[in-house]
Model the fold of this input.
Amino acid sequence: MPISLAKGQKISLAKEAGGASLSNVIMGVGWDVAPTKSGGFLSGIFGGTKAVDSIDLDASCILFNEQNQAVDVVYFGQLSSKDSSIRHTGDNRTGEGDGDDEQIIIELERIPAAVTSLVFTVSSFRGQTFNQVANAYCRIVNGVNNQEIAKYTLSSQGPHTAQIMAKLYRHGGEWKMAALGENCMGRTFQDMMPSILPHL
Done:
């Protein structure tokens, strides 16, 4: 039974997967365009909100070492980590369709020992704010049997353009997940780095 995470909650991936030794997990991210209230023709003239038909959010995974230094990144501009242990399935520029809009595949057993944490972010490349985003979530799926392990709903709308979603980190010889859900500003993961570092 998948667990629904609350902000700040931490779980053991293996425990939530029934004690199985997880070798492959998928971080899936999904979102929709928020419906806009129609104010008619006059609202368009006197400051009404313009309807949005697509939202381009970008999921990224940043790899950190024990010294909290970024050693690699996976995002739309680099779809694979240097050692190919983490792969991005490609950019979705609209948020249309059911299911995950973007996925990052993580082969846990192949991640170099020097990498101690993975931080997952989502940012609006076109600078659209999360006021225009609805039904956003991230979820961890067992890549072997495709069963959902945990899901975190990114329910916070607002003027921010990015969110630090979650962190996978090594602890006591196993991988754990922390739901972070921290709002911040930035169109790319580089913009977000000052906000990410305090959560390592």
Residues 45-50 have pLDDT under 50 and may be disordered. The helical segments are 13-16, 40-45, 189-196.
